[in-house]
Input
Amino acid sequence: MEDQKDIKSQAIVVVEDFGPIKITGNFRVKDLRRDREESPTEIWLCRCGKSNNKPYCDESHKK
Amino acid sequence: MDNEKKKYTGGKKYSNDDITVYWKPSACVHASYCYRELIEVFDPGRRPWVDMEGASTEKIIDVVNLCPTEALAWKWNDESKNEAVDKDQLNHIKFRRPELTDTPEPVKEVPPVSAKIMIDGPIVVKGTFTFMYNGITKEIKESMVSLCRCGVSDHQPFCDGQHRKIGFND
Output
């Protein structure tokens, strides 16, 4: 699959240590629960389960 | 090679070191320029009827260019030379048999990375992206990862399905 090698990374997905998932670059987020779709340039998504503003991080993990 | 086979339906091709001549019998109207001008190369009474060693490359090109149909066409074997060929080369495949030219592969449109927030479940990230976690950097190529959103997975940062057990509700 030669041509797969040519596809450039479109986004950076960083799982922050003890923090949220940060996505930057060319991406689209689809929230199935709230039936919402958005294409921001960066986003922080909750992965601790405690955010009061899911799917976004609201820093509840620090509490 | 395979591509060329697929594209080349019907007819034959003949090569010397410099060029390849394409022959499409169904297009021939027997105008007979080829064998009248260069019987050493194009001899309908001989098999194979084209002998690429019978004359110089320049002469063969000149005579192929005389063919009034698409029965005869030619190209340089060195593909880099084909691009520069001028319109006065009437029967170069570019002009006469464009279906035989190698069209560059269309640039694949790369879709944006998709992050799906599953209902009461993980974040499913799909596409081609750089993925960094636990000090590791991975290049994900047209693939996916499923990331824990409930905080209780034993396999962080990946989802291990425990959100169902704890009744994670977003």
User: Anything to note?
Assistant: The longest helix of chain B spans residues 57-64.
